[in-house]
Recover the amino acids of this structure.
């Protein structure tokens, strides 16, 4: 059973960037699609984007296009999510998750990482 | 505003059954049998409870069931237990450009 362990909490200044890592263990990392989902304080879940091995490139939610970059490093079984031009509204818990689907219709997430709190404050 | 609409809260007594609705459109819920449900306890990561409308992952209690009719999906929890008190989120595939959309979440209170 694959497990995902994320990097620790971050405090960032507005306008800066943050890079969150997600290390997988217990499975064949190269075969997994991975997504990132965020949750602002007291709010719901919001899909940011994901990377599907067969495509080799990431797909992003329109809201985050141009500001988010999702990558993977197969040598370390680690996925990364970098968000730039941070603003206070980006304060949230960021989750990675293994992304599943059939016929390339990736749609459900299991398991999830423990989450990484990113606080954007001057 | 979330893409999928869920009631903000539902409640039930131990042993009862409750149903949480998740309403989308013909571009997401209505077009694909690809709805999933997640349970989230305070301060914890979401946990998959149902995928592909009605399938249960290994280890999830059979008290949890899912269904769909038209543009609305539903999660039913039978025999409510105190440990079921949590937030529940629905999620639907929405095509190869949007990929997935989430509901706003429903807080379940076990009275």
């Amino acid at each position: 059973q694959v497990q995902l362990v994320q990097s620790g909490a971050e405090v960032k200044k507005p306008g800066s960037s943050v890079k969150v890592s997600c290390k997988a263990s217990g499975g064949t990392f190269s075969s997994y699609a991975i997504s990132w989902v965020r949750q602002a304080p007291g709010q719901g879940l919001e899909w940011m984007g994901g990377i599907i091995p067969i495509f080799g490139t990431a797909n992003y939610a329109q809201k985050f296009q141009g500001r988010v970059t999702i990558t993977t490093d197969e040598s370390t079984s680690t996925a990364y999510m970098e968000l730039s031009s941070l603003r206070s509204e980006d304060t949230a818990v960021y989750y990675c998750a293994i992304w599943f689907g059939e016929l390339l219709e990736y749609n459900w997430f299991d398991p999830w990482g423990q989450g990484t709190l990113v606080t954007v404050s001057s | 505003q979330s893409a999928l609409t869920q009631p903000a809260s539902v409640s039930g007594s131990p042993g009862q059954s409750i149903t949480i609705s998740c309403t989308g459109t013909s571009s997401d819920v209505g077009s694909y049998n690809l709805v999933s449900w997640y349970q989230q306890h305070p301060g914890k990561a979401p946990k998959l409870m149902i995928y592909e409308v009605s399938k249960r992952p290994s280890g999830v209690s059979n008290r949890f069931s899912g269904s769909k009719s038209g543009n609305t999906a539903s999660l039913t929890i039978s025999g409510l237990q105190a440990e079921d008190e949590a937030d529940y989120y629905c999620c639907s595939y929405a095509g190869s450009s949007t990929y997935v959309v989430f509901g706003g979440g429903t807080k379940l209170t076990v009275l």
